[in-house]
Specification:
Blueprint: H1 6-17, H2 20-37, E1 42-47, H3 54-67, E2 71-76, H4 88-105, H5 119-132, H6 138-150, H7 164-176, E3 184-187, E4 190-193, H8 198-207, E5 245-249, H9 254-270, E6 274-278, H10 291-308, H11 321-328, H12 330-335, H13 339-352, H14 360-369, H15 374-377, H16 386-399, E7 407-410, E8 413-416, H17 421-441, H18 447-455
Parallel strand pairs: 1-2, 5-6
Antiparallel strand pairs: 1-3, 3-4, 5-7, 7-8
Helix pairs in contact: 3-6, 5-6, 9-13, 13-14
């Protein structure tokens, strides 16, 4: 009799660790601790003056402070761990652009100051933020600092005093609670990143009956709730349908799994072509994923998956052989016109069904339910040609100024993250509207056809 191996047990550990009873127990423990400490309704906010996401986050928290019975305790941090940000230069450029897009979506002041922040400005801002931590109006004070730093140029100068010890205390608390970066809110044992996860914080506060009135409307859900709401199928010869939605995807990335499911939904709504561009996982590219980051991603994916109605948690990590076997069969699946079915089957298997893809039994199940012939597929398992196109895909992703998955590109518009597909949705809509307008004004276009397009 064969005894269970670690690889046999890990999916079951992941399932237990992401189960509803486990999260309920965690909430009960956190609630008991908060009552003992007198901290009920207290949320800790970690902000970094070098992080542009702090500006929209602080504006959003001011709104939540008016809407809910919650107290936000400010904690200023400074250090950015290199292993948490494998491409710091690309991250900084992307972060400012992304935070600006997000601010515009919600009608907030964007961090779009074009010139770089001088070291003296950053030091002054840090000192002011640390001073604001003890102020009853800490959020408003911090917001003013971030507005000056990221939206308007200031000429402040540092007072020369060392705040290193205070920063170290805040950073130690951040790590003790289980995270590694700024623009984070911690409440009842959960982490909420930037504005993107404030909908979960709002849901938590509503469950605890901390909203000031009976209204249970969520303010910060526009990045996902309306995706594809205004989409309509376009004709195959429409200019918008001639541009594919490219998905830069890693079979090991749980966010890629969610992003693929959402991208399929969006592509189907507009009836445009979806082009999958798999890349190697970060660990197989020589980059690191520290434990704190890994566990945050795991729990955050579970939370997002529940929200979107996508199963997740019964995880059989395909790192190594599982990834290689997946990519080795991708060209075969594409030759049969079933690469989307195949990758969705694979992603669901390793993220939600505990299927070990490095085994023939597991891989056969994945292949056959995607509508492919296992006997033909297994003949391609030793193919190595995928390594070339996986590298080509990585380089194409970097050309977009992006380095992580899932990333998406539609024409000249690109973005990173499954919760940024609203940007792609908007780009498709704009191309559809622009193409329709151009055809209306083109005298060579038949008027009757144009009127029909207008009514679609």
């Amino acid at each position: 009799m064969r005894f269970p191996e670690k690889a046999d047990l890990m999916p079951w550990f992941a399932r237990a660790f992401s189960s509803a009873p486990r999260y309920s127990l965690q909430a009960a423990i956190q609630g008991a601790r908060a009552r003992i400490r007198g901290d009920l309704g207290l949320a800790r906010v970690f902000i970094n003056p070098r992080d542009p996401f702090g500006l929209p986050l602080l504006q959003a928290l001011v709104k939540l402070e008016e809407r809910y019975r919650v107290r936000f305790q400010l904690h200023t941090v400074w250090r950015l761990d290199d292993d948490m940000f494998p491409e710091p230069a690309l991250w900084q450029a992307w972060a400012q652009q992304d935070a600006t897009r997000l601010s515009s979506l919600y009608g907030l002041t964007p961090p779009d100051r074009p010139d770089p922040r001088a070291q003296a400005e950053l030091e002054t801002a840090t000192a002011r933020l640390l001073a604001a931590e003890a102020d009853p109006r800490a959020l408003s004070e911090a917001l003013e600092v971030f507005r000056e730093l990221w939206a308007f140029k200031t000429s402040g100068s540092t007072n020369g005093s060392s705040e290193a010890a205070r920063l170290a205390e805040n950073e130690a608390m951040l790590r003790r609670l289980g995270h590694y970066q700024g623009s984070m809110v911690w409440y009842f044992g959960q982490w909420f990143w930037g504005m993107d996860r404030l909908d979960h914080l709002e849901q938590c506060l509503i469950r605890q009956r901390r909203n000031h009135d009976a209204a249970e409307q969520i303010l910060f859900n526009q990045t996902w709730a309306e995706l594809g709401r205004e989409a309509h199928p376009v004709a195959a010869d429409h200019p918008a349908a001639q541009v594919p939605l490219e998905v830069f995807f890693s079979i090991r990335s749980p966010y890629s799994y969610l992003g693929l499911e959402r991208a399929v939904q969006l592509a189907n709504a507009w009836r445009i072509h979806l082009r999958l561009r798999p890349v190697l996982p970060m660990l197989m590219r020589g980059q690191s994923v520290p434990d704190a980051k890994k566990w945050y991603i795991f729990h955050d994916t579970k939370r997002e998956a529940n929200k979107l109605g996508i199963p997740y948690g019964f995880v059989a990590d395909p790192l190594g052989p599982g990834v290689e076997r997946c990519y080795a069969l991708f060209d075969y699946a594409r030759s049969q016109g079933r690469e989307i079915n195949y990758m969705r089957s694979y992603a669901r298997a390793v993220n939600a069904e505990g299927i070990r893809s490095e085994t023939d039994a597991g891989l056969r199940q994945i292949v056959e339910r995607a509508g492919l012939d296992w006997q033909k597929a297994r003949m391609h398992l030793n193919d190595e040609g995928w390594r070339d196109w996986a590298e080509d895909n990585r380089l194409a992703m970097y050309e977009c100024g992006l380095w992580g998955v899932p990333s998406f590109r539609y024409g000249a518009v690109s973005c990173w993250g499954q919760d940024r597909l609203w940007i792609i949705d908007g780009a498709i809509k704009k191309r559809v509207e622009t193409s329709s307008t151009q055809r209306v004004s083109d005298p060579t276009v038949n008027t009757e056809v144009t009127q029909s397009q207008r009514s679609q």
